[in-house]
Amino acid sequence: MNQPLQVISGRIEILSVVNKDDQTLKTLEIMKNQVHKIGAITKKLMGLKKYSNRDYAGTIKITDIGQTPEDDDQ
């Protein structure tokens, strides 16, 4: 997943250099921030060894990658 993100990030950088329109630059900045967020999530997922499940709608449980079972004990 990181390789496609790097391609997208590189294209955003190129577009930032060749486009000087303020609205385009704002949009590219938003895209760049979102790519960084996806990268951070990917990094968390790659290092995921322990996780915590929590209840969601009805009987559905979701995995909380930001909280380990040890965090629940505190």
Q: What form results from the Cα inertia axes?
A: elongated
What structural class is derived from the secondary structure elements? mainly alpha
Straight-line distance between termini: 34 Å
* Oligomerization state: single chain
In percent terms, what proportion of residues is strand?
Answer: 5-15%
Helix content: 55-70%
Q: What is the residue-mean pLDDT, rounded to a whole number? A: 85
Write down the Rg.
18 Å
What is the chain-wise order of helices and strands? HHEEH
Task: Report the uncertain regions.
Answer: none
Profile the largest sheet.
2 strands, antiparallel
How many β-strand runs? 2
Question: Number of helical segments?
Answer: 3
Strand order of the largest sheet: 1-2
Description:
There is one protein chain. By secondary structure, the protein is mostly helical. The chain has 3 helices and 2 strands. It has helices at residues 2-18, 22-46, 69-73, and strands at residues 52-55, 61-64. Strands 1-2 form a two-stranded antiparallel ribbon. Helix 1 runs antiparallel to helix 2. It starts with a helix and ends with a helix.
List the helices and strands and how they pair.
Layout: H1 2-18, H2 22-46, E1 52-55, E2 61-64, H3 69-73
Antiparallel strand pairs: 1-2
Helix pairs in contact: 1-2
